[in-house]
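Appendix B. Chain record.
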Amino acid sequence: MSEKIKKQCIVLLSGGLDSATVLNIALENYDVTALIFDYGQRHKFEISAAKKIAELADIPIKLITIDLGQFGNSALTDNIEVPKNQDIGKEIPITYVPVRNTIFLSYALAFAEVNNIFDIFIGVNALDYSGYPDCRPEFIEAFEKMANEGTKFAQGNKKIKIHTPLINLTKAEIILAGTKLNVDYKTTHSCYDPSTNGLSCGECDACILRKEGFASAGINDPTNYI
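Structure tokens predicted for this chain:
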């Protein structure tokens, strides 16, 4: 009996904890192509982490290079200090990269249309997160509607779906779900301000959320911190 052919999908793979979990969720039902973005971020270790994760999953990647640093106004792309040990979620932090997920999803949408792929996965989360507006359900719903209105290949019966399997999960729940799927979290990288040899600072929003997530899940955090 021949094996059932899986549908194609795109996963936005950043190299972080959330996107690695989303990748493993997608792999259960789809043949995946990973989109990795080099957008001028200061934490470039996430790019090598994403490539390693894709290599271990034996999936094709599309590396997209864009320069969001030309716009600046973010601690991730500009000469602005990354905040440490701040109250997370009280206000949108300076680590927010203007229009980043809109741009990433637009590139994914272009790749999807050219390759006739109707399913896009992204690891946004609206619970244990820094408060970025482009991680909320309202944003994803609006983008999906725009995608189906503004593309040629979605004018028939098949429609584009933006999958956000983590959007209503806590960081601990994400880690527990990923652990069941055998995600190797040691290969992931979350830190916004790593050392020159890739050690995580342990004090930026991403590191704090990561550490608290592993602690709440009761799972050992495999991250190498400074």
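Further analysis of this model is presented in Appendix C.
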